From TrEMBL, chain A:
<comment type="pathway">
    <text>Pyrimidine metabolism; UMP biosynthesis via de novo pathway; (S)-dihydroorotate from bicarbonate: step 2/3.</text>
</comment>
<dbReference type="GO" id="GO:0016597">
    <property type="term" value="F:amino acid binding"/>
</dbReference>
<feature type="domain" description="Aspartate/ornithine carbamoyltransferase carbamoyl-P binding">
    <location>
        <begin position="19"/>
        <end position="163"/>
    </location>
</feature>
<comment type="subunit">
    <text>Heterododecamer (2C3:3R2) of six catalytic PyrB chains organized as two trimers (C3), and six regulatory PyrI chains organized as three dimers (R2).</text>
</comment>
<dbReference type="Pfam" id="PF00185">
    <property type="entry name" value="OTCace"/>
</dbReference>
<dbReference type="InterPro" id="IPR036901">
    <property type="entry name" value="Asp/Orn_carbamoylTrfase_sf"/>
</dbReference>
<dbReference type="GO" id="GO:0006207">
    <property type="term" value="P:'de novo' pyrimidine nucleobase biosynthetic process"/>
</dbReference>
<keyword id="KW-0808">Transferase</keyword>
<feature type="domain" description="Aspartate/ornithine carbamoyltransferase Asp/Orn-binding">
    <location>
        <begin position="172"/>
        <end position="316"/>
    </location>
</feature>
<dbReference type="GO" id="GO:0005829">
    <property type="term" value="C:cytosol"/>
</dbReference>
<dbReference type="InterPro" id="IPR002082">
    <property type="entry name" value="Asp_carbamoyltransf"/>
</dbReference>
<feature type="binding site">
    <location>
        <position position="121"/>
    </location>
    <ligand>
        <name>carbamoyl phosphate</name>
    </ligand>
</feature>
<dbReference type="GO" id="GO:0006520">
    <property type="term" value="P:amino acid metabolic process"/>
</dbReference>
<protein>
    <recommendedName>
        <fullName>Aspartate carbamoyltransferase</fullName>
        <ecNumber>2.1.3.2</ecNumber>
    </recommendedName>
</protein>
<keyword id="KW-0665">Pyrimidine biosynthesis</keyword>
<dbReference type="GO" id="GO:0004070">
    <property type="term" value="F:aspartate carbamoyltransferase activity"/>
</dbReference>
<feature type="binding site">
    <location>
        <position position="71"/>
    </location>
    <ligand>
        <name>carbamoyl phosphate</name>
    </ligand>
</feature>
């Protein structure tokens, strides 16, 4: 009766360029491929003597982390610096009860410092959308993780890692294992994998860790590893937070590990050349056995390397979308 | 003062009246319909050609923010909004600050509303002290001070024993209990309907069972105690069916629904627009269909606004961190008219659900245009279009998702006790 908001009306310019990167959901396939191609060109740069390109020279990137994460913050910082941007890192405490006021006030303050890009991590789903809706049109927003909703750069670095090892997406069967319910990573991975056209996406978890009607996102649901991992090409493990034991979601880490922890025995259900991924930091002996995490099929460290390249790609694309939009707006106002 | 409302289509479901005629008002009462009483001289004539004349609307659930949260709205601002929306009677929730659990607060609200004089305000009293679900509030005393019904809102009862005793005590004094059924643990941290949209958006869901389990428990205890009971703002199809089954067994329970739950679904939350953050949540298409069906069959007899005005800050945050509730007094009638446009209800049937039906639920002598009754009247143009905007709303709460939309149906005049309290 009333139209739902299209998430892309906010993250794309009128001519379809990226201007914010908030979610992988609904982005066109060509755009995801472009991000991967651009990222590919950045991957090897890290091994060169001079590790910088001038794409964001003279621009200021503010990393706004309302939720602590040293690793993600570091990769965004490094990515911005390799693009020659000036970087401002802010860890902002959200324990105050009036989050909304703080958030909006913080945005106003940072805007006044003439930042060109906000990289945002926040514990509330939709926080990156909220920020994108409330910043001036001159600031690009990159979602570095919002609540359980989305973590699009993580998903894209996973896609890059898959593509660099498997080539084509079309024939692949991919299994995502663990705490799907609380995972923004899983949601972003599912949207990206679907758009890139993999053959099959599976999620494997006990029912307590599966969100309602997850199958509506286009995945097959499994509750045990033997059938869930059968013949898959890619296994994407998720991190399990310790607090899940306290709310009757799981009896113990030991039982979870026994049933869903990826060890060599369970890995044998998958294809012989199946690869193993994990967004990190890993809990050895909870989600994954050390021998698998450190083994030849593990791509966990490749993911970290690719993460910097993907973040460089997304930041440069969003900035160029932002600049072309500014130019279009300037032209329009000049003509008027 | 004598007022003549001439030439309108007068619809009064209470007396099965639907005809183009004249309405005569004198000394605060309706003194005649059709022919002028002898010696009647109108001091004021309201020309209602092409318009609908019906009883003033009775809204079963409005949150007044006074006393305590006047930055969100005052009795003056919200009763003015009611008058502009054709609503002459507001049943208001006890969650003011202080809470409506003493005669003083109940009387303060009524006195202030009477002084302002835009709408009748009937407070609901707290069922338990502090709405904390532990000890009985002084129900008898509050009823003597004008509380029309008693509710614990969506706040939990300490346990089923306490709930049972509340109902027994209310039944002792023949008081009406209003349930806003929600199991607290199942709804914990939820901010929208638990379904595919919540899964996609990564927002905590409120499962249907949070409502149905509580409806089920309440129905069983209502049956045991014989208390007069009403279920406010149902959101689930299954709740409607449970209440229907209870009524078929002979239980005297009634139910209402908020207009937004009849028109919208959880899909509206796509895009994280906090204007759609409401309690109970907007649910699935199936739930919406079940609520609409319940309205047609009469299991749900009344439609309410569930008006909850907010200051802008309350809605300016990521979705889950915003405060729930929509501002709805001024959109209640035009949105309800969409149900007629959609051919779900005939116009008289719709007006019934906004006038005599809520009056009957409350046991109130109101909601009709019968000769001799108090002249609470709404005159509206069903075809007039207007655009919802911050400027066009009189409510202090501009928190409606219908901002910017053009709605059909506009109130032209509202009378309370034979006085014109709004005219456009």
């Amino acid at each position: 009766m009333f139209e739902a908001n299209d998430p892309n009306s906010i993250q794309l310019t009128a001519d379809g360029q990226l201007r914010h990167f908030l979610t992988t959901e609904g982005l066109p396939r060509e755009l995801l491929i472009e991000i991967l191609d651009t990222a590919d060109s950045f991957v090897d740069m890290g091994e060169q003597q001079v590790k910088k390109v001038p794409l964001l020279r003279g621009k200021t990137v503010a990393n706004l982390f309302f939720e602590n994460s040293t690793r993600t913050l570091s990769t965004f910082e490094l990515a911005a610096k390799r693009l020659s941007a000036d970087v401002l890192n802010l860890n902002i405490n959200t324990s105050s009860t009036k989050k909304g006021e703080t958030l909006k006030d913080t945005l106003m303050t940072l805007q006044a410092m003439h930042s060109d890009m906000f990289v945002v991590r926040h514990a509330d789903s939709g926080a990156a959308h909220f920020i994108a809706q409330h910043v001036t049109p001159n600031v690009a927003v990159i979602n570095a993780g919002d609540g359980r909703h989305a973590h699009p750069t993580q998903a894209m670095l996973d896609m890059l890692t898959i593509r660099r090892h498997k080539g084509e997406f079309a024939p692949l069967k991919v299994a995502i294992v663990g705490d799907i319910l609380h995972s923004r990573v899983a949601r972003s991975q599912i949207h990206a994998l679907r758009t890139l056209g993999v053959h099959e996406i599976r999620v494997i978890a006990p029912k307590t860790l599966l969100p309602r009607h997850i199958e509506a996102l286009g995945v097959k649901v499994y509750t045990e590893m033997a059938s869930g991992l059968r013949d898959v090409d890619v296994i994407m493990m998720l991190r399990l937070q310790k607090e899940r034991m306290q709310s009757a979601l799981l009896p113990s880490e030991a039982e979870f590990y026994k049933l869903y922890g990826l060890n060599r025995d369970k890995l044998a259900y998958a294809k012989p050349d199946a690869v193993v991924m994990h967004p990190g930091p890993i809990n050895r002996g909870v989600e994954i056995e050390s021998e698998v995490a450190d083994g030849p099929r593990s791509l966990i460290l490749d993911q970290v390397t690719n993460g910097i390249a993907v973040r460089m790609a997304v930041m440069s694309k969003a900035m160029s979308g932002q600049l072309s939009q500014r130019a279009a707006t300037d032209n329009a106002s000049r003509e008027a | 003062m004598n007022i003549l409302i001439s030439g309108g289509r007068v619809i009064d479901p209470a007396q099965s009246l639907d005809q183009i005629t004249d309405l005569y008002i004198s000394q605060g009462e309706i003194c005649a319909i059709g022919a002028a009483p002898e010696g009647f001289h109108a001091d004021e004539v309201i020309n209602a050609d092409g318009q609908i004349v019906c009883p003033g609307l009775i809204d079963l659930c409005t949150t007044l923010r006074e006393p305590g949260q006047t930055r969100k709205g005052t009795i003056a601002s919200e009763t003015a909004a009611a008058a502009a929306g054709g609503i002459t009677t507001l049943v208001v929730t006890p969650d003011t600050s202080p809470i409506v659990e003493t005669a003083a607060v109940a009387e303060l609200i009524q006195d202030r509303a009477a002084d302002i004089g835009f709408a009748r305000v009937l407070p609901m009293g707290a069922l338990t002290q502090g709405l904390q679900g532990e000890q009985l509030a002084p129900l008898h005393g509050l009823a003597s001070s004008g509380c029309i019904a008693f509710t614990n809102l969506r706040r939990p009862f300490g346990n089923s024993q306490i709930l049972l005793r509340c109902l027994e005590y209310a039944a002792t004094h023949d008081l009406l209990v209003v349930f806003q059924a929600q199991d607290e643990a199942l709804a914990a941290n939820g901010c929208m309907h638990d379904d595919t949209t919540s899964t996609r958006l990564g927002l905590n869901g409120i499962p249907e069972a949070a409502e149905t389990i509580e409806v089920s428990r309440c129905l069983l205890l209502v049956e045991q105690t014989g208390v007069r009971a009403h279920f406010g703002q149902l959101s689930c199809e299954r709740s409607v069916r449970m209440i229907e089954a209870a009524r078929e067994r002979g239980l005297q329970v009634s139910a209402d629904v908020a207009i937004q739950n009849l028109l919208l679904t959880d899909e509206s939350v796509n895009g994280f627009n906090s204007a759609y953050h409401v309690q109970p949540p907007l649910r699935s298409q199936l739930d919406r269909a079940g609520l609409r069906q319940g309205l047609v069959t009469g299991t749900i007899s009344a439609i309410c606004s569930d008006h909850q005005p907010h200051d802008p800050i309350a809605k300016q945050a990521p979705f889950a961190a915003t405060e729930p509730g929509m501002s709805g007094l001024e959109t209640l009638l035009p949105l309800s008219l969409q149900l007629v446009e959609q051919q779900l209800l005939e116009l008289p049937q719709l007006i019934e659900s906004l006038t005599i039906a809520p009056a009957l639920i409350l046991g109130l002598d109101a909601g009709t245009l019968e000769v001799g009754s108090q002249a609470d009247i709404c005159v509206f143009d069903p075809a007039a279009e207007w655009t919802v905007s911050e400027e066009s709303l009189r409510s202090a709460g501009k928190n409606t998702p219908f901002l910017g939309q053009t709605l059909k149906g506009q109130v032209k005049a509202t009378l309370m006790d034979g006085r014109i309290v709004f005219r456009r």
